[in-house]
Amino acid sequence: AQTVTQSQPEMSVQEAETVTLSCTYDTSESNYYLFWYKQPPSRQMILVIRQEAYKQQNATENRFSVNFQKAAKSFSLKISDSQLGDTAMYFCAFTPNYGGSQGNLIFGKGTKLSVKP
Amino acid sequence: EAGVAQSPRYKIIEKRQSVAFWCNPISGHATLYWYQQILGQGPKLLIQFQNNGVVDDSQLPKDRFSAERLKGVDSTLKIQPAKLEDSAVYLCASSLDFPKQGAGGYTFGSGTRLTVV
Fold this sequence. Notes:
The structure holds 2 protein chains of 2 kinds.
Chain A lengths: L2 E3 L4 E5 L4 E3 L2 E3 L5 E8 L6 E7 L7 E2 L2 E6 L4 E6 L8 E9 L9 E2 L3 E6 L1
Parallel strand pairs in A: 2-12
Antiparallel strand pairs in A: 1-4, 3-9, 5-6, 5-10, 7-8, 8-9, 10-11, 10-12
Chain B lengths: L4 E3 L2 E4 L5 E6 L6 E7 L6 E7 L2 E4 L8 E5 L5 E5 L8 E8 L2 H4 L5 E2 L3 E5 L1
Parallel strand pairs in B: 2-11
Antiparallel strand pairs in B: 1-3, 3-8, 4-5, 4-9, 5-6, 7-8, 9-10, 9-11
């Protein structure tokens, strides 16, 4: 079975500092996608960043970057220059790129991030 | 571009009653998903549609849950009869045709928070 584990239920960071959220996953697939989603109190899932497993280069989106370690099945999110608006639940998610579960996002339990002024 | 629309936003019902949720995906999105998010957990897929056909409903409790997608556009998710453990947020998401377009094009609605008392 494919699983996603986020070992940090809650984290806090001072405004303008850097924080890293951890995620590990388990799969026997070799071709898949990994995501980080942000869920504010409005409940809508917002895509933060995406990584394709066959790409060795780590994805970056402005202040957000990932450290993708395929052999270790690790996918951490680094947020630089944290802003108050980054306060939210963050979910790591996985989906295989083929097979019956294609497109089905498998989520971790989430990390609640609080950015303090 | 309009987002994924869901209604109602909140619903409170007594156990053993029935309830229905509605979702209108982004125009042109062939794939539609319903996720259940229990408090403190990540979303879990209930059912995935490709146009108006079911791709994956392996985690849908079919004795009480049903879903349909009329004409490959709007979708409704129904629970009958509801149980206390069905209290959760029900998220709808849509994406372009996954096999052709690849991952990353998911758009989520703001969900319906269901409370069963």
